[in-house]
Specification:
By secondary structure, the protein is of the alpha/beta class. The chain has helices at 18-28, 56-67, 83-93, 119-127, 138-145, 152-163, 211-224, 229-245, 261-264, and strands at 4-12, 32-44, 47-53, 74-77, 100-102, 133-134, 169-172, 183-190, 195-201, 271-273. It has a single domain (4-273), classed as Ribokinase (UDP-N-acetylmuramoyl-L-alanine:D-glutamate ligase), CATH 3.40.1190. It is built from 9 helices and 10 strands. It has a 10-stranded mixed sheet, sandwiched between helices. Strand 5 (100-102), helix 4 and strand 6 form a beta-alpha-beta unit. The radius of gyration is 17 Å and the shape is globular. It binds adenosine-5'-triphosphate and (4-amino-2-methylpyrimidin-5-yl)methyl dihydrogen phosphate. Adenosine-5'-triphosphate (ATP) binds at residues 109, 137, 173-176, 184, 186, 200, 202-203, 208, 210-212, 215, 237, 240-241, 244. Keywords: Kinase, Thiamine biosynthesis, Transferase.
Length: 274
């Protein structure tokens, strides 16, 4: 049976992030992608020009349509925008057995707000207890914990605080961490105390629009296909690295990543430290 994936996220008219990045990734990884739209953005590679959030009851309606018909094997959340959307979505996910990947999207590359300030608390209270994996970038992890991250020790302390909020796995994404380093390193922490570090060469490119969305969508797809957690994390890192390495040169700002690359280009070895 074809694995079924679901993304609950915002639309990016520019096609590089949000629902569009998620569905492209789901398709490339041979899963059947479904979607629940939370908001629509007018967006391109320069940034976000406008945001229109959908009414909560209509978001719930979409989710109920999927839940009443499909056996979703894994799902992710992306842009959730407001406290009321987070509350409505979380309530609907309470009895879900499939893995839930929470990408705590807050701010777009150009600085636009994709999560209202007061929604941060709602995310921690209502959604984190349901999360299997949480995938913050460094600024998001700082906002969620009120702690500053400068060293590896800080990364570990922050991850511990996030684990205490409910998720089983925390992926501290390294795109924003130590950009002078030659590597893009993700530090992963498990509830049972295990750690996993995944490192790949840092690519010098401005085409990184949608990296976070694409990464969490790839992780969702690999989990939906039944890969064990560590293997799914490693393959998702390979997917995003291929996508960043082979930019498409689309648009005039921060271009999208290449969702075809994992299947069409030679694979880069990811360094795995356990
Ligand atoms: N220049 C780069 N070269 C290689 N890998 C990268 C680069 N930038 C980010 N990554 C990887 O991409 C994934 C997403 O990380 P990142 O920290 O960029 O997420 P994000 O901040 O949510 O995305 P965005 O910046 O698009 O909002 C991680 O695995 C990270 O290591
Ligand atoms: C609709 C939408 N959702 C999410 C992001 C963030 O994208 P990313 O963090 O992957 O660059 C975005 N720019 N637009």
């Amino acid at each position: 049976m074809l694995p079924i994936t679901l993304t609950i996220a915002g639309s990016d008219s520019g096609g590089g992030a949000g629902i569009q990045a998620d569905l492209k990734t789901f398709q490339e990884l041979k899963t059947f992608g479904t979607s629940v739209l939370t908001a629509v953005t007018a967006q391109n590679t320069y940034g976000v020009q406008a945001v229109y959030a959908l009414p909560e009851d209509f978001i719930v309606e979409q989710l109920q349509s999927i839940q009443s018909d499909f056996n979703v094997n894994a799902l992710k959340t992306g842009m959730l925008f407001s406290a009321s959307i987070i509350e409505a979505v979380s309530k609907q996910l309470e009895n879900v057995q499939a893995p839930i990947i929470v990408d705590p999207v807050m701010i777009a590359k150009g600085g636009a707000t994709l999560l209202q300030q007061e929604a941060v608390d709602a995310m921690i209270t209502h959604l984190f207890p349901l999360a299997t994996v949480l995938t913050p970038n460094i600024p998001e992890a700082e906002t969620l914990t009120g702690m500053k991250i400068q060293t590896y020790d800080d990364v570990e302390q922050v991850a511990k605080k996030l684990l205490a909020m409910g998720p089983e796995v925390i992926v501290m994404k390294g795109g924003h961490f130590a950009p002078e380093q030659q590597a893009a390193i993700d530090h992963i922490f498990f509830k049972n105390g295990d750690k996993l570090t995944l490192s790949a060469p840092r690519v010098q490119t401005k085409d990184t629009h949608g990296t976070g969305c694409t990464y969490s969508a790839a992780l969702t797809a690999f989990l939906a296909k039944g890969l064990p957690m560590k293997e799914a994390l490693i393959e998702a890192k390979r997917f995003i690295h291929a996508a960043i390495s082979h930019g498409l040169g689309i648009g005039h700002g921060h271009g999208p990543t290449n969702h075809f690359a994992y299947n069409t280009k030679a694979k880069v070895e990811v360094e795995i430290i356990e």
